[in-house]
Each structure stands twice: as structure tokens, then as C-alpha cells.
Write a structure and sequence with these properties.
This protein is an alpha+beta fold. 47% of the residues lie in helices and 23% in strands.
């Protein structure tokens, strides 16, 4: 037993538990995507074994903190860091068992003190002999017809009421079913050209419709009648004195019913009287209401069915998921049975005075929403406004703005009571403090590695001979030349199209346009977006984007025969009638004539067929059809003057702006006249300037449009400085240009690294300084670019895929500079990786457009949380690259001593470990900061959403890798390289995989699966090959 316990408390067991915990979390995210969130919580997150793993990890941590004596002053930072997890675990446990979570729904000018729980319960409710409400509930997951058997007892004093589960009905609906203890019923569906209505008749019912009685097992009271009755033979019959036609659906025959004659009431017949159709849908001699399964194509709801026994009587009962409680009388007592959230009564009420919703100008996208409420607690009243990231705290409860009703007259507030908040926040503080102090503690592993690297570096410098490397200097001087060449302009080609003066285009660049998402931006931004999307270039035959778009809108006739829409697929070229060497199509190329000689869009049928296909079944040709169809439609809208929204509508509550075409459709006559005068004046002035070459009048006309914008749309027009900076940002195109700089500098330095390996006496000092200088300049420009984008957009530049990739490239560059003082390898690899990341960011399927923020992201916590987490990816990327580099060196290393390669492996491994430690600290800090953001925004630290769960998985995996050096057999440069290389896939899954393959708040996945890119499989194969080939040289590896 003692041996088992020691093994359970060992570092090896801790690593095993970390990986088991990570694996369980990964499985849970997959279960959630396949079976739903409830299944993931029932089988994993809320299971006893899952909680046991966390408890064992905490106990193991306590034991090893004592065993390794990390509670001393010298190890204080490490103690604070590790102890923080114990405090966080205690806080989380208190929250889990004693906290309350739910939501409160309030309509305007009403109040409530009820919150509904987040969890759904199976509930049985009744009253005891004294009239006191007694209830029993079970929070149990039921999703399939597998083994779900359970009982529930309700203690009513002398006797118990017992519910016994029988079955689950997936996608059911309330309907009549055969039952021995049931009653006769008839369901009839009435319909006309406009309406449908189903009516149920019980035995003895009379349904009067005007002067007509429809009866079931009863005599009519009016002269005109339709009698329906059930005879002893178990069949239903009908008799009438009215003119009724019928249509027999089985053989498509029709006829007329004989009056006052008994006929079969046939459910396969459609009857018609005075233009109203009716037909029986259900006819049962013995029936009762129950749960009927309906096809998955119809809207239904899951329901549970069971037997309720009390006082010697047993009756079948049922409840629908999330529905109201149903009432049953069993054994002479009334019971309520429900499968829904519980209602919790608060000791105070919330009154909703007003709900407000703000939108981005000219769009339906919410920019923010708030609830003006009054807290009423006896005679005490307090006004308060609740909005995103502005929480109401009262009576130990916290109220967060969560959602709202579609009619915008009601609010939904998230509510929670969290007694574990204080210990959890104390744990977070200790975690941050411990990590921070660890980087300054001379006894820490991080600084120990730094000292070893410095020592190795200084020794290597003494052994290197100083040589003149004129060739190196000449070669590397070219890097600086190339660097500056990437920031110079070109495109001097001329054309015969109506041109726009460059100086006039510069002035037009700052004309304000309302974007598709309501963002107010300069004309230059939208012009570049359209040119980039339609033409796939930054300029057109010597004209920049502004010149090109102005020419198209002013002179649409001249552009209809111009080859402008990018076509890359040969099959599409044939369809459009292009030559194989043509790369673009004109507007006219997209149209032909049909059999009636009328113009027809050549891609209409193709685009309709392709869009109906599931994304995962679309071929490369299908995808190209969709892209070209989109390009053409954007080009068509530009030609039709319906894309550039430059005219604000007067007194519009949503500050909507319109293009020329929209002005004609949406403005009043007087306002249309004023707007048209401004627009027509500009058009005519430009046309005159194109003929005369004098652009002074066109400049004045442009100024009139700007004055019109500033007068009518003053509330949403950005400042002139912001517009100018955005134009400058577009012109510089910093991130795309830096891609080549990083790649060139990185590969140049990598070549010299390999040259030095072959010739250890090679002096790399000048080469290193040159590339280091290039990287410093590139990093500063990169930082400037991020700062400009931040200023322009008004929010931190890491809110979408493009921005986060650009930021990761920045983090990679930053990590390379940090470790560059002692490692040329680190600098070269991070430069290459930064260049590759920017290359990925500028792939065609990633949109670099600056967008607006959804309300929940409009928080300073976003800036901190996302920036810290995303920065960690840069250091993990460096770790992965160094690991691959080490494995490659193992492969080419000759058996025995190869001092230069061994030195490089040692250096790369140490920097790898430092990078990994730094990245893990950032990710851990960012993840817990995200918990603070979540708690301050919507009242919960952790929701086991797929994104945050995979972030935790990454932390667990890298924690196991960090502690490998303490494990006998795993403490090896080879195994550390293999582990840190393959661990990066958890980062890739967190960043990319969750977004497209799993469900959750951070996910873009829906319905159809997106194929896994081939590059993923190729990368995996390369890693496996590297690990396998290096395995045979693992004996040459040193301990960490």
C-alpha cells in the first residue's frame, strides 16, 4: 500500500494525471460537438471520476511542494505559483457546490424576483397535509434510449410518491394516443386558401359554426348539421343534410355525399363545404394525450415518460424538455411534473424601466445594449443601469447584461451568487505574482538556463577566430537593400481608360464611406478592398485603387468591356469565352444570349447548383465558381453606383448612409433633390476635368460632398486625422511587405548558421548584426503597424483571424529578439516563422478588413486576455521550431563526438526550454485573466467552452513537458524535442481547430464539416519522419 501511495504521489504520476486530465477534456469537446453540451457535462465535466482527477492532482501538488521543500524563502516565487493552484481549486470547489447561477427575464415596466437556474432538473411537486409545497428534483442527463433507469421519491409524510423513469422520446410532440383507459376523440383539420386550424372533438361535443352544428356522439341543436359518431363496431361514421363534396386521395376520385345517409368517416378523404376543406387526422375509440414521436424534419421536443405511483394508484406521466410543469392526479392527490429549470425566489425584486439598444451606423449590428432597472427591497429603492461589463451587485447576487427580447422591450440578465469568488481571485493574484517574481529569482530554472546559455556563449566567442568576411558583408548588405526596396512603390503602366488625376484622388481618398458593417471609413479603404477582391491587385494599369474606383463609378460605360474580374480556372475561362492566356474577364464576358435571344448571365445555373452543395462536397472548380460569382456581383454593384455609401440620410435615427442608387430609392423628394445636386455636380465636374485636364472645379465639387457629409452626418464622421492615418496605413501595407523581410533575413541567417556548423571557425558576428538590425527595424515597423491599426479601428488589433495572425507574427519576432543575444538559431527561426505567419494571414480566404466589435468584446479585458494568450503562441512556435531543428541535427550528427552539432543541440534545447517556460507562463496568465473577464462580463469564470477547454489542455500538456526533466528515462534532449514539437498541435487545435471543427462560443463551425487542409497532414508526416529518424541517434542525447 505504501509503495502504491508513493507512486500515486510521484512526479511521474502527476505527469500521467496531467495528460489523462488533458485527454478527458479533449474527449469532452468532441462529445459536445457530437452529442451536445449536456452530454459533455453529464459524462465528463460533472462526473465523479473527473472531479477525482482534479482532487488527486491537488493532493499530488501539496505532497510534492513539501517533498521538494519549495516553501523556503529562496524558492518563494515557485511556492506562490504552485500554492495558487491549491487556492484556486478551493475557490472553484466552493463555487461549484455553494454557488448559484441562472437568468432573469424582465419585460419593460414590470418587475420580478424570480431567476431560472442554468441547469435543467426533473422535478416532482405536490403539497403535504398542511398545504405546504413539497418538491423533489434530480439534475440528471438523459439524451438517448440507453440505460437511464432511475427512481425519484417525494416524501409526503405518511406515504411516498414514487416516479419511475420509463423512456425518452426524441423529437416528440403532444398528441392523442391509443389507451385502454382513454376516451373517444376525433381531430379534424379545417383549411381554406389562407388559414389552417385543427379542432379536437370529445364524445358529446357540439361545435357550432354559424348556423351549422358539427357534433360527435351527440344530436345537433341547429337544423343544419354534420353528425360524426362511433358505433359498437369500433368504426366512425358521418351523416349530414348539407351539400358536401369529397376527394378520395387513394385513387384521385371525387364526388358528392348523399344527404341523410350514413357513410364511413374516412381519413383518406378530403371533404369540402362552402369553400372550406376538412379532413379527419385522428380518430380513436380510446385515446388520451401523450407524447408522439415526429419526424426529425419537423420541429419537436424531447420528452421523458415514466410511472407515478401514490396511494396504490399508478399513472403514466410525461414532461417536455424546458416546458411548463404538467398537472396529474394520482391516488387522489395532485402532482406537478416538469423537466425544466428551477425557479429561485430572491428576497428583493428588479423593475425594468427601459431597455436600450444601440447599433453601428447604418447597420442592424448591435454596438451595445443596456437595462435601466430599479432594485426594490421593501421600502428601499435604487436606480442602476446594467450594460456589458457594468454589473449590478446587490444582496450577494450579481446581475449581468446577457441578452434581450427580439422586440427590444425585454431584457435577459445573467444572475449569479459566488461565495468562492474571493479565494479564486486570491489564487489568481498569487499565480501572477509567483510567475512575475520567478523571472527575477536567481534560483529559478529560467535564470539557471539563462546563465548556462551565457556561459556557453562567452566560451564560444573566445574560441572563434576573428576573420575578415568580406563576402559575408557584401551578401548581407543586400538584405538591407532588399529591405528598403519592399517599401518602395511601382506600377507605372499606362492605359486608355478615363483617368482620374492623382492629386484629386489623394483628396478623394479621405472621403467618408459607410462600410457594409456600419463602420465609417475613408473611400481609400473600401476602394482597396474592392480592387483586391475583384481584380486581385493593388493597382490597375498605373491607376491606384481610388483612381480606379472613381473612374468606374464616373465612367461605367467605358469599363464594361475592360478585362477587370480575375479568372484563374481554365474551365471557367472556356465558359466565359476567354482565351487560355487571359487572366481577367470583362463585364460583357459574363453575359450571353438564351434560346429566346435575351441576355443571360453565364454563371447563373452553375452558381445556383454550387451554392446548394454542402461545403465539404464542393470541388476546386465549385469553389472557384463561388469566388468569381462574388467578384462579378461586387463589380456589378460598383458599376451601378450602389456600393459606395457616401450620402448620409437626414435625421436618420440609425445614421444610415446611402450610395447614389440608394438615394433615389430611400430619400424624400426634397432631400433627394439636395443630395442629387451634390452628386451630379461632382460627376459633371469630373467628366469636364477628364476632357480639359483642369481639376480645380472637381476639387471644389468634392469639397462640397465632404461639407455635406460633415453637416448631415456629423455624429458619425471620423476625425480628419484618423482618416489620414488610415489612408497612410493602407498605402504602407506594412504587414504584407514585412513578410518578405522576415523570410529573407531569417533564411540568410540560417544559411550562415549551417555554414558555421560545417566550419566552426567562421566568424558570424557581422552576419548576425546585420540580420539583427533588419529584425529590429522590422519589429519596430510591425509594432507601428499594430499601433496604427489599433488607433484606426478603435479597439485592440487582435479581434479576428487576420489580426491575431499578425499579432502572433509580432510575438514570434519579439521572442526571437529576446533570445537573439545568445542564439543566432532562435533569431533565424523566429524570423522565418514570423514571415510564414504573415504569409498565412494574407492568404485569399482570410479577410484583412477592419471590422466593428460585438458588444461583449468591447472591453479592456479583451485587450489584456487575448494579447497575453496570443503572445504565448509565438513562444510555443519558437519552441516547436527549435525542437525540429534539434531533431534535424540529431539526424545529421555522426556517431560519437561532434562538438559543433552537440553544442548547437545543447544551445537550442536550453533556449527551447526557456521559450516554453515563458510561453506557458503567458498562456496560463492569459487563460486565468480570461476567467476574470468572463466573470466580470457574464458572471462565470469557466464554462467549459471548447476554446477555453483546449487552452487548458495546452497548459496541461506543456506543464507535463516542463516537468519531463524530473522523470528518469524522459530526461533527455531527444524526448524533450519530440514532446515540445508534437505539443504544438494542441496550440494549433486551440487556435484553428476549435474555430472550425468544434462547437462553442468561440466556434465558427456549423452543420457542414470543412475538410482538413492537406498541409496539416504533410506537417504531421514531416514531424513523424523527423522523430523516427532521430530516434536511432537518441543515445547521443544529453540530459536536460
Amino acid at each position: 500500500m505504501g509503495k502504491f501511495l508513493r507512486g500515486l504521489l510521484s512526479i511521474r504520476a502527476m505527469n500521467a494525471l496531467l495528460l489523462i486530465f488533458a485527454f478527458a477534456c479533449a474527449v469532452a469537446t468532441i462529445v459536445e460537438s457530437i452529442k451536445g453540451t449536456d452530454a459533455a457535462f453529464a459524462f465528463i465535466y460533472r462526473s465523479n471520476w473527473f472531479g477525482l482527477i482534479m482532487l488527486l492532482l491537488t493532493i499530488n501538488l501539496i505532497y510534492n511542494m513539501i517533498r521538494y521543500k519549495i516553501y523556503g524563502l529562496k524558492k518563494l516565487p515557485g511556492f506562490l505559483f504552485h500554492f495558487s493552484f491549491i487556492v484556486i481549486f478551493v475557490g472553484a470547489t466552493i463555487t461549484h457546490y455553494f454557488g448559484k447561477e441562472g437568468s432573469m427575464h424582465i419585460r419593460e415596466h414590470t418587475k420580478t424576483n424570480l431567476i431560472s437556474t442554468r441547469e435543467v432538473y426533473i422535478q416532482l411537486i405536490s403539497e403535504d397535509e398542511k398545504g405546504k409545497t413539497i418538491s423533489k428534483d434530480v439534475n440528471r442527463y438523459i439524451a438517448t434510449n440507453e440505460k437511464n433507469s432511475f427512481d425519484m421519491k417525494l416524501d409526503l409524510g405518511k406515504k411516498d410518491a414514487v416516479f419511475k423513469y420509463k423512456e425518452l422520446v426524441l423529437n416528440g410532440d403532444l398528441g392523442w394516443m391509443k389507451a385502454d383507459d382513454g376516451k373517444p376523440i376525433v381531430e379534424i383539420l379545417f383549411s381554406d386558401d389562407k388559414n389552417k386550424r385543427k379542432i379536437t372533438l370529445n364524445s358529446g361535443d357540439i361545435l357550432p359554426i354559424g348556423d351549422l352544428d358539427i357534433t360527435f356522439n351527440n344530436e345537433p341543436k341547429q337544423h343544419n348539421f354534420i353528425k360524426i359518431y362511433l358505433k359498437n363496431d369500433g368504426k366512425f361514421y358521418m351523416q349530414t343534410n348539407q351539400d358536401i363534396k369529397y376527394f378520395q386521395m387513394s385513387d384521385n376520385t371525387d364526388g358528392k355525399l348523399e344527404k341523410n345517409t350514413e357513410i364511413d368517416f374516412n381519413e383518406h378523404r378530403l371533404y369540402t363545404i362552402d369553400g372550406v376543406n376538412f379532413a379527419p387526422t385522428t380518430m380513436l375509440a380510446k385515446a388520451k394525450l401523450g407524447v408522439k414521436p415526429v419526424p426529425m424534419t419537423q420541429k419537436g421536443n424531447n420528452a421523458i415518460i415514466g410511472d407515478l405511483t401514490y396511494n396504490g394508484e399508478t399513472k403514466e406521466v410525461f414532461a417536455f424538455f424546458g416546458d411548463f410543469a404538467r398537472t396529474y392526479t394520482v391516488g387522489g392527490k395532485e402532482f406537478k411534473f416538469a423537466w425544466s429549470p428551477k425557479m429561485i425566489e430572491l428576497p428583493f425584486s428588479i423593475y425594468l424601466k427601459d431597455f436600450k439598444l444601440d447599433r453601428y451606423p447604418g447597420s442592424n449590428s448591435p454596438s451595445g445594449y443596456s437595462s435601466e432597472v430599479v432594485v426594490e427591497d421593501g421600502d428601499f429603492k435604487m436606480d442602476y443601469e446594467i450594460y456589458m461589463n457594468h454589473v449590478l451587485d446587490y444582496g450577494g447576487f450579481r446581475f449581468f447584461q446577457s441578452s434581450y427580447d427580439l422586440d427590444e422591450k425585454g431584457t435577459i440578465l445573467s444572475v449569479n451568487k459566488d461565495p468562492g469568488k474571493i479565494p479564486t481571485y486570491i489564487g489568481y493574484f498569487l499565480l501572477m505574482l509567483g510567475m512575475f517574481l520567478n523571472f527575477f529569482n536567481k534560483n529559478s530554472r529560467f535564470l539557471e538556463l539563462a546563465r548556462l546559455i551565457d556561459k556557453s556563449s562567452s566560451r564560444d566567442k573566445k574560441t572563434v577566430k576573428k576573420e575578415n568576411n568580406n563576402v559575408n558583408k557584401k551578401a548581407l548588405s543586400l538584405i538591407l537593400v532588399a529591405f528598403f526596396s519592399f517599401f518602395t512603390a511601382n506600377n507605372l503602366k499606362a492605359n486608355d481608360l478615363p483617368n482620374i488625376d492623382k492629386e484629386h484622388a489623394k483628396k478623394a481618398a479621405t472621403l467618408v464611406v459607410q462600410g457594409f458593417d456600419g463602420r465609417m471609413e475613408p473611400f481609400d479603404t473600401m476602394a482597396n478592398e474592392i480592387l483586391r477582391k475583384v481584380y486581385k491587385g493593388k493597382s490597375f494599369e498605373g491607376m491606384n485603387a481610388v483612381q480606379t474606383m472613381l473612374s468606374i463609378t464616373i465612367n461605367p460605360e467605358s469599363w464594361q468591356h475592360t478585362k477587370f474580374v480575375k479568372i484563374g480556372d481554365d474551365e471557367l475561362k472556356k465558359i466565359l469565352g476567354l482565351k487560355s492566356n487571359e487572366t481577367h474577364a470583362s463585364f460583357e464576358d459574363f453575359f450571353g444570349t438564351d434560346e429566346n435571344g435575351k441576355p443571360s448571365y453565364k454563371l447563373m445555373l452553375l452558381s445556383e447548383q454550387t451554392n446548394r452543395k454542402a461545403p465539404n462536397t464542393r470541388t476546386k472548380f465549385d469553389k472557384e465558381v463561388i469566388k468569381v460569382d462574388e467578384r462579378f456581383n461586387i463589380y456589378y454593384a460598383t458599376l451601378m453606383k450602389s456600393i459606395f455609401k457616401i450620402i448620409p440620410k437626414e435625421n436618420d435615427p440609425n445614421h444610415t448612409w446611402f450610395a447614389t442608387y440608394g438615394v433615389m430609392k430611400n430619400f424624400s423628394a426634397a432631400e433627394e433633390k439636395r443630395a442629387k445636386m451634390v452628386l451630379q455636380n461632382y460627376t459633371m465636374s469630373v467628366l469636364d476635368a477628364q476632357k480639359s485636364g483642369n481639376w480645380s472645379e472637381a476639387d471644389k465639387a468634392l469639397d462640397l460632398i465632404k461639407k455635406y457629409q460633415n453637416k448631415i452626418g456629423a455624429k458619425v464622421v471620423p476625425s480628419y486625422n484618423k482618416l489620414k492615418f488610415e489612408v497612410l496605413f493602407n498605402e504602407l501595407d506594412i504587414f504584407k511587405r514585412l513578410m518578405s523581410v522576415y523570410l529573407l533575413g531569417g533564411f540568410a541567417l540560417l544559411i550562415f548558421v549551417f555554414l558555421r556548423m560545417m566550419s566552426p571557425n567562421l566568424n558570424m558576428s557581422f552576419a548576425f548584426k546585420m540580420v539583427y538590425l533588419v529584425n529590429i527595424i522590422a519589429f519596430l515597423l510591425h509594432t507601428t503597424g499594430l499601433g496604427l491599426r489599433w488607433y484606426i479601428s478603435g479597439h485592440a488589433p487582435w479581434s479576428n483571424t487576420y489580426e491575431s495572425l499578425v499579432y502572433i507574427a509580432w510575438a514570434l519576432s519579439f521572442s526571437g529578439i529576446i533570445f537573439s543575444r545568445t542564439s543566432a538559431i532562435s533569431l533565424s527561426l523566429t524570423s522565418i516563422m514570423a514571415g510564414i505567419t504573415l504569409f498565412v494571414a494574407h492568404l485569399s480566404h482570410i479577410d484583412p478588413q477592419i471590422t466593428t466589435l460585438v458588444p461583449v468584446l468591447n472591453s479592456y479585458w479583451l485587450t489584456i486576455h487575448v494579447s497575453v494568450i496570443t503572445a504565448s503562441y509565438g513562444f510555443f512556435g519558437l519552441s516547436m521550431l527549435l525542437a525540429m531543428f534539434c531533431l534535424f541535427l540529431f539526424i545529421i550528427k555522426k556517431p560519437g563526438n561532434d562538438n559543433e552539432l552537440a553544442r548547437n543541440i545543447l544551445e537550442a534545447t536550453r533556449i527551447n526550454e526557456m521559450s516554453l517556460i515563458f510561453g506557458l507562463c503567458l498562456l496560463t496568465a492569459g487563460n486565468f485573466l480570461g476567467g476574470v473577464w468572463a466573470n466580470e462580463s457574464w458572471g462565470r469564470y469557466w464554462g467549459w467552452d471548447s476554446k477555453e477547454t483546449w487552452s487548458l489542455i495546452t497548459i496541461l500538456i506543456y506543464s507535463a513537458v516542463i516537468h519531463m526533466r524530473l522523470l528518469k528515462g524522459a530526461n533527455s534532449q531527444y524526448w524533450f524535442a519530440v514532446a515540445s514539437m508534437f505539443s504544438f498541435w494542441s496550440v494549433m487545435m486551440t487556435y484553428f481547430g476549435v474555430n472550425f471543427y468544434l462547437s462553442g462560443l468561440h466556434s465558427y463551425a456549423s452543420g457542414d464539416a470543412i475538410p482538413v487542409p492537406k498541409s496539416i497532414w504533410v506537417s504531421m508526416l514531416v514531424m513523424i519522419i523527423l522523430a523516427t529518424l532521430a530516434y536511432f541517434k537518441r543515445k547521443d542525447a544529453q540530459k536536460l
